[in-house]
């Protein structure tokens, strides 16, 4: 078990952990790290067919499980957990993936920063940690956009708190009032770009997202990474390539997404897709799913991809 948090559990913080066929050892590590930091954890299981079907968290006094029975997507699972949290009149909701591990004081640092930003007059959409991607062994810097430039943010040059373009959902601490003002996640997206879409909707309504460098988290993205020219890059399944392409194209058409981000992200997406096609062992399947995602995104066909089309 990881070392206990130095600070006590944060009263009024309800964590929502979404699982789908998790590695049980990794899930226990997450709960060991998160349980001492928050008041309640709701694990929303998205139709797992492994040991998670019958596993019960008896060794944790503040963990409850909500089993959906089928895979509704990460956005719907987050919304189920968020609604349960809001019904209990919490102050903040913390979102987490199953493959994230917060450091012992992550939640304390996030909440402290959120409250200070609010006291300073900021409308806080969310605050999130600086994280290390365990799979590519690389720190994933917080980013913002300046014109057509993508700016990577580091603590030594940006201070302990930095306003960012958006945050990944895992490790994201969201005030209750922001959720009521902005709304929930877009379930039609199913997976991928869900957090970016929500962050842009929040920004469109006057709320800003902030990265907190004192709050840290380990996180794994995608499947086994691919290597190209001595570097490691996150990799994904063909189905995820479909959702990434589809949801990106859909979001490029939305008015709440900034124009400069659309231009920067579309160029980055094209480069990533080329990289996957060059390095993937399933080039034909990946290419097929990318084209399908491009078509469906262009026609705004959202929702889960039927198994017959996968």
Describe the structure.
- The chain is of the alpha/beta class.
- It folds into 2 domains: 10-219, Spore Coat Polysaccharide Biosynthesis Protein SpsA, Chain A, CATH 3.90.550.10; 223-309, no CATH class.
- It is 36% helix and 27% strand.
- The chain has 9 helices and 14 strands.
- The protein has helices at residues 24-34, 74-87, 106-119, 155-158, 176-182, 194-204, 238-252, 259-279, 283-298; strands spanning 10-19, 38-45, 63-67, 92-97, 100-102, 124-133, 138-140, 142-146, 149-153, 161-164, 173-175, 208-219, 223-228, 231-235.
- The strands form 4 sheets. The chain has a 5-stranded mixed β-sheet, with helices on both faces. Strands 5, 6, 7, 10 and 12 form a 5-stranded mixed β-sheet that branches. A two-stranded antiparallel ribbon has the order 8-9.
- Strand 6 and strand 7 (138-140) form a beta hairpin.
- Helix 7 (238-252) runs parallel beside helix 9 (283-298) and helix 8 (259-279) runs antiparallel to helix 9 (283-298).
- The longest helix is centred in the last third of the chain and has 21 residues, at 259-279.
- The protein is globular.
- The model has no long low-confidence stretch (mean pLDDT 89).
């Amino acid at each position: 078990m990881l070392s206990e948090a130095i600070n006590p559990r944060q009263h009024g913080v309800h964590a929502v952990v979404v699982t789908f066929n998790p590695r049980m050892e990794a899930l226990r590590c997450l709960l060991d790290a998160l349980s001492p930091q928050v008041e309640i954890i709701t694990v929303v299981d998205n139709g797992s067919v492994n040991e998670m079907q019958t596993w019960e968290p008896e060794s944790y006094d503040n963990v409850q499980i909500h089993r959906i029975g089928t895979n509704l997507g990460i956005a719907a699972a987050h919304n189920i957990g968020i609604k349960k949290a809001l019904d209990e009149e919490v102050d903040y909701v913390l979102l987490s993936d199953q493959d994230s591990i917060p450091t012992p004081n992550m939640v304390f640092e996030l909440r402290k920063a959120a409250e200070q930003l609010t006291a300073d007059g900021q409308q806080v959409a969310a605050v999130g940690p600086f994280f290390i991607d365990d799979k590519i062994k690389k720190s994933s810097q917080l980013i913002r956009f300046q014109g057509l430039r993508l700016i990577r943010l580091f603590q030594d040059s940006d201070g302990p708190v930095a306003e960012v373009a958006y945050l990944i959902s895992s490790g994201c601490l969201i005030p209750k009032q922001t959720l009521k003002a902005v709304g929930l996640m877009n379930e039609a997206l199913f997976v991928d770009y869900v957090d970016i879409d929500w962050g842009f909707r929040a920004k469109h309504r006057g709320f800003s997202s902030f990265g907190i460098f004192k709050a840290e988290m380990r996180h794994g993205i995608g499947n086994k990474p691919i290597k190209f020219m001595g570097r490691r890059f996150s990799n994904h399944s063909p189905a995820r390539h479909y959702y990434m392409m589809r949801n990106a194209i859909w979001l490029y058409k939305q008015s709440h997404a900034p124009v400069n981000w659309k231009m920067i992200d579309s160029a980055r997406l094209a480069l990533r897709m080329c990289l996957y096609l060059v390095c993937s062992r399933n080039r034909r399947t990946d290419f097929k799913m990318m084209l399908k995602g491009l078509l469906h995104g262009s026609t705004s066909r959202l929702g889960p991809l039927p198994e017959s089309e996968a």
